[in-house]
Amino acid sequence: MQKYLLHNIRELPKACRRGEEAEFDQIFHQYFSAVSFYSMQITGDRFASEDIAGEAFVRVWERREKVNEVKAYLYRVARNLSLDWVKAENKRKATEQKAGPMMEIHEILAWEALVKAEVLREVHAAIEKLPAQRKRVIKLLYHEGKSVKEVATALNISPRVIREHRKEGLVFLRKIMRSIPLLFL
Description:
Shape: globular
Largest sheet: none
Strand content: under 5%
Distance between the termini: 43 Å
Order of helices and strands: HHHHHHHH
CATH topology of the largest domain: Rna Polymerase Sigma Factor, Chain: A
CATH class of the largest domain: Mainly Alpha
CATH architecture of the largest domain: Orthogonal Bundle
Helix content: over 70%
Structural class: mainly alpha
Radius of gyration: 20 Å
Number of domains: 2
């Protein structure tokens, strides 16, 4: 059987209907962090958000023959599960404290979290397009929060070269990010 390489999430429903778990696994790895982050912005609980993200993927797989827009369905399921979790958590807290935050605030936060999660996913995807050395520099500076001097020492490169990699990397990332359509506005 010829290996089908999935290049676009829009191809996922067809791949899933064919029962190609490898393609679904590819989407899982590409979107799990973003969906988990999205859920965490709603729930405020990292462990619950990871469970919710996992459950969202299970539901996509279970309903794969009926789902046409996988990404939208995935985020909708994660949002609903997250809001359900918040409601249950609020009920639990209300029983203990006789108070809980208003759901309208959580719905606004859910929308903001969706936008943040998608932007974060796009930024990470853009970083992966950088040349290897530049990608390492950007990740060390911005993901790990290291200083230019620390990165220069770690990579055995002069600070001037690190600053040049940072400058060129950010120029590239800005160019990529400008080309991304603002789907949520």
